[in-house]
Specification:
five-stranded mixed β-sheet, 2 domains, 268 residues, 60s Ribosomal Protein L30, Chain: A, homodimer, alpha/beta, Alpha/beta knot, 12 helices, seven-stranded parallel β-sheet
Chain lengths: 268, 268
């Protein structure tokens, strides 16, 4: 059996109401220790052990039986069938693809993140844009980042928009939220991690520093940059040289430039 | 006189209706040859000659008289005063900053873009996300790009979200829309511009190519990448090496990595 066989056709259904609430409420997602993923791609890449529920639209169920079967295999989970209209109601996207999973979170501690082989970290200080955070996680996986530490006041990684922007990297890049980022910086510096902040006061260009050692990049808020108390803890300030009248790059673009320079050096 | 002195207090006002329509309708913006910019930063950076109208909220008028005076100087323009409520109505943002300008477009032709000193171009093929297009324009200015050519089916640069994401670079980076990108590629190749496509089939890593000559990067659609007929015209395929399970980067992140590698080489 791939589905429970009974189709939910009302938005007043208690399961439907809960899904809609999970889409919107960070607190509820946290309480349940889950997040929602939508779309066929995110569905295909979900680690089977972490799937807790699957909802499909009638249209999806008819068209994508094989994909569904493959992902369900060995999970012991049956998909819940929603009418297309009800699916549209619970979806966070404008053009729903007809599949939505409730996925169990995998939490890391700072200690676990620090214990990796060749440390390459990102520290995100008060990043606010969910799309930026998602894009950074995706870029980070591509660049070989081993862990991401976010300040507690950063955007929620489990926000549906963030999840989408990660294109699946959220399943694979270890991350944790920490209340006190200056303390985290002390821990990193104490552990021999070279910490770099992209900063207008940087004395050397970002491509002149050596990132082949254990290293971490600090990325600050989209509008106001790094908080002073965080920037102060950085071992080195580096500058991304700008032409034209540009003062700074978008946070995700700056992070991409820095991470791929580190990846470039580490490949050589 | 800094303002006309009469405050518009009704959303039924004909000027207000037109502004609301300009926010939403690409076609109308095009017909009038204008775009809207919001926020104090975009307002400060607007080239005075290109301002055609300025609207301010009552709150902004009281608080930012000096800024307003400075930008209006020599333009012969008087700001129109809107009640805070009416301003909220015409604003495209959730937390309006109280200033909105109607700015005249500056159109470039492909020929003008090609005539620059040391060519460094971007070709955006069917980019769809307004935020991506805006971020790319901002990053491009910082990297020293001399002109951007967008396929006619790409997102509208004059979309309010795109404008915001450029952080002012939209005033300064020459760009044009072209119907036939394969033809543009022929023109570029014929003019001795080295054209590079980031592609999974790339034979060399992106940092192994030489970008110190006249060059252009091709960036494709967020979901489907470069169209075959465009990719075929690229002089060289380069690869951005990926770790983990990442197939490709977000278009704006990939563009940032490529453009700043070119900028790095051009600085040396």
């Amino acid at each position: 059996m791939m589905s429970t066989g009974i189709m939910i056709t009302s938005t007043a259904n208690v399961k439907v109401k809960r899904l809609a609430a999970l889409q919107k409420k960070k607190r509820l997602r946290k309480e349940e220790g889950v997040f929602l993923v939508e779309g066929i791609r995110m569905f295909r890449e979900v680690p089977p052990k972490r799937v807790s529920e699957i909802y499909v639209s009638e249209a999806f169920y008819k068209k994508e039986r094989d994909t569904l079967k493959k992902v369900l295999e060995g999970t012991g989970i049956e998909a819940e069938l929603l009418s297309d209209q009800v699916f549209d109601y619970v979806s966070d996207t404008k053009t729903p693809q007809g599949v939505l999973c409730v996925v169990k979170r995998k939490e890391y501690t700072l200690e676990e993140i620090l214990r990796c082989g060749s440390p390459f970290f990102l520290v995100l200080d008060n990043l606010q844009d969910p799309g930026n955070v998602g894009t950074i996680i995706r870029t980070a996986e591509g660049a070989g980042v081993t862990g991401i530490i976010l300040s507690a006041d950063s955007a929620d990684v489990y926000n549906p928009k963030t999840i989408r922007s990660t294109m699946g990297s959220v399943y694979r890049v270890p991350f944790c939220y920490e209340e006190n980022i200056p303390d985290v910086m002390d821990v990193l510096n104490g552990a021999g991690v070279h910490t770099f902040a992209a900063h207008l006061d940087g004395k050397c260009d970002y491509d002149e520093a050596d990132y082949r050692h254990p290293c971490a990049f600090l990325i600050g808020n989209e509008g106001s940059g790094l908080r002073k108390e965080v920037a102060e803890k950085a071992g080195e300030y580096v500058r991304i040289p700008m032409l034209g009248h540009v003062e700074s790059l978008n946070a995700a673009a700056a992070a991409a430039v820095l991470m791929f320079e580190a990846a470039r050096q580490r490949r050589k």
